[in-house]
Amino acid sequence: MNPIIAILKEHNVSDAKIHELFQTLTENPLMAMGTLGQLGIPAEKLQQLLGLVMQKPALIKEAVLELGLDFSKVEAAKAKLQQ
In this structure, what DSSP letter does residue 39 have? Predict the structure, then answer.
């Protein structure tokens, strides 16, 4: 299992909420960060989670694919942020 998803499940984040989070991530990454902060994950675990994302961005792609979402939307959102 993807370590990002594992941390979320460890803190009782439902599958539906995980799917919603990554769907938001594919459409609006900045909004996803806000949503992530509202999940009630303790600060130290949230920091660990964000560290994983920053150090190993490929984990986002793995998680998106594991959840059956369209990774091309993540790439499009990333391109918009860089403009």
Answer: S
Place of tokens 């391109």: 79
Helix axes 71-82, 15-27, angle to 10 degrees: 40
Residue 64 and residue 69: Cα distance in Å, rounded? 5
**What does the alpha-carbon distance between residue 45 and residue 37 come to, in Å, rounded to a whole number?**
11
Is 29 exposed, middle or buried, given 0-12, 13-18 or 19+ CB atoms closer than 10 A? middle
- Residue 24: half-sphere exposure toward Cβ, Cα within 13 Å: 13
pLDDT in tens, 1-55: 899 999 999 999 999 999 988 888 777 777 877 888 888 888 888 888 888 878 8
